[in-house]
Design goal:
mainly alpha; 7 helices
Length: 132
């Protein structure tokens, strides 16, 4: 996603790699907050949620795929980030019940496939009598 924009518009491969690295770091922030919120179910004042979130972040950042994908000129980091952001927003929606988080989760989940997606399948789904 960012690599196509950077290479197609400007012809600069380094800009696409920079955007991929920024996307990967953004996913790390969302994953840290998601893991911290999931680990702090009870209202205790211990550091266990932060330790759990840091270990999840370390696992996310130190995996061989993470190192390779964050430096590569591929759409994979963008897809992974949108999946993490969709999960984070869905969890926030389960916590608060606010519709803005439901819309954010839907927008992030829809962005995994790209901004255009498959419009024909969306139209067929909207016209299906099973959905109404």
């Amino acid at each position: 996603m960012p690599d196509v924009f950077a290479h197609g518009m400007f012809g600069m491969a380094w800009l696409g790699r920079l955007l991929n690295s920024i996307f990967w770091l953004l996913g790390g922030l969302a994953l840290f907050d998601l893991a911290r919120r999931m680990a702090s179910i009870s209202n205790d004042a211990s550091n266990a949620p932060v330790v759990g979130a840091l270990s999840a972040l370390a696992y996310y950042v130190a995996l061989p795929f993470a190192v390779q994908a964050s430096r590569a000129f591929q759409p994979d980091p963008g897809m992974v980030v949108w999946i993490i952001l969709a999960s984070w927003a869905a969890y926030r929606w389960s916590e608060t019940g606010a519709w803005r988080w439901a819309l954010a989760a839907g927008a992030a989940a829809g962005s995994v496939d790209g901004p255009a997606g498959d419009r024909r399948s969306l139209i067929r789904s909207a016209r299906s009598p099973r959905i109404r």
